[in-house]
Amino acid sequence: MCRWLAYKGKPIFLEDLVRQPKHSLIAQSLSCSEAKVDTNGDGFGIGWYGARSAPGLYRDTLPAWGDENLSRLVHQIQSGLFFAHVRASTGTATSRNNCHPFAVGNYLFMHNGQIGGYQKIRRQIENMISDEYYAHRQGTTDSEALFLALLSRGVAVDPCRVTREVLEDVLDIMNQNGVREALRFTAALSDGERLYVMRYSSDAIVPSLYYRLCDGGLTVVSEPLDPINNDWFEVPAGQMIYFGGIGAPSFMPLEVKNFKKEVA
Which fold has domain 3-263? Predict the structure, then answer.
């Protein structure tokens, strides 16, 4: 499984979270503690918002711990809203287009998880993407397909409802094709103004996710960046976090229905 972080708050240098902490995201790319695999060396990416509405994006296939350009960039880039991701592939190729985050227009998205049996049902999943957004399909991952499906359904209007409906449709496709593997969806989405974070799994194994509110800013991470600090709290499973930058984050239940399991 991948490791990622999202931040919204007062502008800070990306290295304050990506590189400097003892258990930073770059450190987690080499050795993490709450994932199936110890290393996340199948590429990395950072996405950040600056003076323009469209986010900046830098992705590569090198391991995050071995890319000097990444260290130099996070040392210089300052942002009040950014994503960072280190990848452990669940079966698709290691390529720049398969590295997170993904960007379309003013939106950023990244994901840790899987669509069970994806190679078997990939064409049906991609049918969930409208022609408008399929034109933005660059890679082959289930993560990018989920992102484009969310945009196709109008995620800007009601992110919680649209996310729930997309996940339910994916589960329906999985059930119709006899897929026994789980759907796991721990993801972050932003339009440049708001941050949405989701944690869901169709089984009991939910990818780890934590949050911290500090100095008015929200940081969400796959694993705490400083594990001995008690300021980190686990994001409840089956929840979406919304944070607009003022006050405390809001929690909304996803209430995803797995119809096959309910009938059984």
Answer: Glutamine Phosphoribosylpyrophosphate, subunit 1, domain 1 (3.60.20)
